[in-house]
Amino acid sequence: MQMPTYMSKFTSILAFVAILSACGSPAEQTVDPSRANASSSAEPNKEISAAPSNANAVTPSSNAARSNDPVRDGAPTSTKETITLQPEVPEGTKQTTLQYTMNAAYRFEPIAGSEAAKKAVLLTFDDGPKDETTLKAMLDTLDKHHTKAIFFVNGYRVKAKPELLKLIASRGQTIGNHSWDHVDLKKEDEKTVRKQIGDVQQIVKKTTGLTPRFFRPPFGSGGDLVKKIAAESELLFMTWSNGSLDWDASTKDKPEKVIANVMEQLHPGANILMHELPWTKDALDNLLTQLKNKGYAFIDPATIDTTPTTKPAK
Ligand SMILES: [Zn+2]
């Protein structure tokens, strides 16, 4: 009588697996964004504790794969048992699904067929890495909000503080190329532009093992030549669509002004320009909370399609 009992148990497990696989994405179904927003608007300065912050995340599939994902951790024991019946996907073969594309105005739109949120923003921080205290606090705030950003770095700063670049990389943030010397590339000849861009690609690769995929010219100043060289270097060229003016004297030591500037220009797909600065660091937690309260998600740079949509200028 042993065989039939064993077989019936095995059959019921198979049936359970079938039911589970028909259920779709658990992360999608268990998160209630309206509740997350309601709880955070009641206490804007406190961390959202009850509702998972990834209610606003735009990459549910990649979040589900992370070991610290609250939905997966909270899954019933029986689910874990069924998972062991299936072969684990090796870490190296996990692929990030592309969700967003950038338009000619440097704004982001969900890729056709993607379930990514239209109301989403990209966070970017230029001109680092500079200061360990400022940078660490910004990274902590991004972590608190389960958010990724692009740090557009200058080569001469990386050379001075390679450990800070490693820190950015180790926290899973994205590194972008912002030229070596922060010069106005529009005024430079081809050889100089190539060196200004190429040397940053090299030092980032040497320091972190990562190759930047994004490029932003200093001062947003880049003509056809700079665009062509960026494209040849397999870099997505962008300026921004929402300037926080955090670099300007009018916002110095005024985090509330940084927030007000961003919120005034807010639009779906916004490409938000900020810098590694103390008052931006002080603004960040409140800013991210306000963006969430407005129903905005944060675009993970890893989900942006960097394939050029048009041929670079000849
Ligand atoms: Zn800059």
TrEMBL record:
Signal sequence region: 1-27
Q: Which InterPro entries match?
A: Glyco_hydro/deAcase_b/a-brl, NODB_dom, Polysacc_deacetylase_ArnD
Q: How is this protein annotated for GO cellular component?
A: membrane
Region annotation Disordered: where it falls in the sequence? 27-83
A molecular function annotated in GO for this UniProt entry is: hydrolase activity, acting on carbon-nitrogen (but not peptide) bonds
Q: Which UniProt keywords apply?
A: Hydrolase, Metal-binding, Signal
Renumbered to this chain, the Polar residues biased-composition regions fall at 27-43, 51-66
Give one GO biological process term.
carbohydrate metabolic process
KW Signal (keyword) present: yes
| PROSITE patterns noted in UniProt | NODB
Location of the NodB homology domain: 119-299
**Pfam families assigned to the protein according to its UniProt record, in alphabetical order:** Polysacc_deac_1
Q: What is this protein called?
A: Peptidoglycan/xylan/chitin deacetylase (PgdA/CDA1 family)
Question: What organism does the UniProt record list as the source?
Answer: Paenibacillus methanolicus
Q: What is the lineage of its organism?
A: Bacteria, Bacillati, Bacillota, Bacilli, Bacillales
